[in-house]
Amino acid sequence: MQIDSNPLLIWFVIGYGVLMILIGLYYSKKIDNNDDFILAGKTLGPVVLMGTLLATWVGSGAVTGGQNSIAYSFGIWPAIGYALPSLIGILTILVIGSKIRNYGKYTIAEILEMKFGKVAGYFAAIIIILSFIGIVSYQYKGLGFVLHVSTGISVETGTIIAAVIIIFLATIGGLMSVAPTDAFSAFLVIIALAIALPLGIHVAGGWNHIIDSTPKKMLKPMGSLSAIQILGYYIPTLFLLLGDQNIYQRISASKSDKSSRWGTIGWIIGLLIVTPLISLLAFISRAIFPKIEPGMALIALSSQLPIFVGGLLIAALTAFIVTTGNSYLLSAATSVIYDIFNHIFKKAESDKMLLYTRILVPVLGVIAFLLTTFFPTILSVQMYAYTVYGAGITPALLAVFLYPKVTKVAGLTSMALGLVSTLIWEFFFVQSTGINSAIISVPLAILAIIIITPLTYKEKDNDELKATTN
């Protein structure tokens, strides 16, 4: 069956877009400095924090890549299981949440610089920019899919329009406006997915018909994937989440440790609802559209539902895509300004830093758009971006909080080895082996810390480092 565009759906997308712009403009008036722009003035309560954490994490990577593409291409059970690495990551963040908040830093690179020196800070900033621009690029493409289904315009034209929308919203309000719109979007998505599920089953001809039209291998516990292929999808997700600068910034933006804790618990509950729903809806879509781009599965299904439900669903998907794009674009700009620009040109006045950040957001947004032409599918760029970050930053970052004895040499070696091994494997071995680079690069980065730290640890140096960071 071919995907038929439904022009009526665009009104739901427009309605959502207008509402988000109005909210963004309202909150942009409350911004006085970069602390407001990047950390929302540290005013986020548990409900808004829960919503912004969920919406940031479950963006286009989930509704056009991640569990959506896995359910459509490989089977329902590995897609539902895709929630497992996220749950492990969130529970870990719950344990170290107060440490994250009390560090009081804008960026991950600032944390790594405190522990491993300026070189680590620059290195981290470069990795964050490489990864986050990749993540922003597939948000554009995801929204391009939405506009294609709702208007009939080409995906390419839709992607250009998506880039303009996301760049504009990220520029005007920063986290002060992104966080409340995230919270609204998160609750909208949960409601839309829940309503769409029974109707989707009905439209597809009933559950028995869906099962009968699905290849039997896709119904197995691991679907059509091998164990090592599943790990190739799960490991990048886990290690991005464990060190995701966006998540750390939101934890830091909470009112208190109590708000942080309850917001994170709410995030877990939301994830346990959203992941199975997305997986099931994408799996259902396969029975209706067996030969479409996997990233289109959930979006295509919206065109077959009753207009109100389909419109609500496509507006909800737009919500997640836009808010995630805003967040990662803003975070990438923050890294450039604070971790590179501010070091090279020394400390600038707060109001100028805010101006520079707002100028840089559209520059990076355009670069992200250019990147959309280099990867064949959303899932492929998603796994690349996740692994670059997860191997290059997360092991060293977690060591800061969980392994105080980690040395500067060990941290820097872990970051370099994680990044270089990822790039080498992505360019030369992924296509020939079918194995995700995370299977190779993440263990190497972890081993570097475990092996090198005992060989280079000196009690005196560690005491001096503690004195400079306390």
TrEMBL record:
Subcellular localization, as worded in the UniProt entry: Membrane
CDD domains referenced in this protein's UniProt entry, alphabetically: SLC5sbd
Tree of life domain: Bacteria
Keyword entries, A-Z: Membrane, Transmembrane, Transmembrane helix, Transport
Signal sequence, renumbered to the chain: none
Chief site of localization: membrane
Transmembrane annotation, as ranges: 6-27, 39-59, 79-98, 119-140, 160-179, 186-205, 225-243, 264-285, 305-338, 359-378, 384-403, 410-429, 435-457
Membrane-protein topology: Multi-pass membrane protein
A Pfam match: SSF
PANTHER family reported for this sequence: SODIUM-SOLUTE SYMPORTER-RELATED, SODIUM/PROLINE SYMPORTER-RELATED
Family: Belongs to the sodium:solute symporter (SSF) (TC 2.A.21) family.
Record-given protein name: Sodium:solute symporter family protein
Provenance organism: Staphylococcus debuckii
